[in-house]
């Protein structure tokens, strides 16, 4: 069983994809960039404000599927500048807590949509 997940508290998809797809007990959340859902624009400010917005966007998608960050089993972090890793990692650790943390990879990419500084996608498990 597949179900589209869409939250008004997260930015609308900027292409032909879903914010999230629930397949059985798994939710596959599309990569979120720091778009303000109200304006559709990248939030002003540095990497800290952009990272916070990304996590709020992910949280909205997770919550729409009755999940939260404790359900996340895997996360992928895309950075425009690997030098932002420590800052993003610090903010990441505010959202992912507990005994079993998600598997993760993080790496620098050549460019991200709308000149974002980061994008994060994740997979969550409801079981």
From TrEMBL:
GO CC terms, sorted: cytosol
Name of a matching Pfam family: Ribonuc_L-PSP
UniProt superkingdom: Bacteria
GO MF, any single term: deaminase activity
PANTHER family for this protein: 2-IMINOBUTANOATE/2-IMINOPROPANOATE DEAMINASE RIDA, 2-IMINOBUTANOATE_2-IMINOPROPANOATE DEAMINASE
Sequence similarity: Belongs to the RutC family.
UniProt protein name: Endoribonuclease L-PSP
């Amino acid at each position: 069983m597949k179900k589209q997940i869409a939250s008004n508290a997260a930015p609308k998809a900027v292409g032909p994809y879903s914010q999230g797809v629930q397949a059985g007990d798994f939710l596959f959340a599309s990569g979120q960039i720091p778009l303000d859902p109200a304006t559709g624009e990248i939030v002003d400010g540095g990497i800290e404000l952009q990272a916070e917005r990304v996590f709020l966007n992910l949280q909205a998608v997770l919550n729409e599927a009755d999940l939260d960050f404790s359900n996340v089993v895997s996360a992928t972090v895309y950075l425009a500048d690997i030098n932002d890793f420590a800052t993003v990692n610090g903010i990441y650790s505010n959202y992912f807590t507990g005994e079993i943390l998600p598997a993760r990879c993080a790496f620098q990419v050549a460019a991200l949509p709308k000149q974002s500084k980061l994008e994060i996608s994740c997979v969550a498990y409801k079981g």
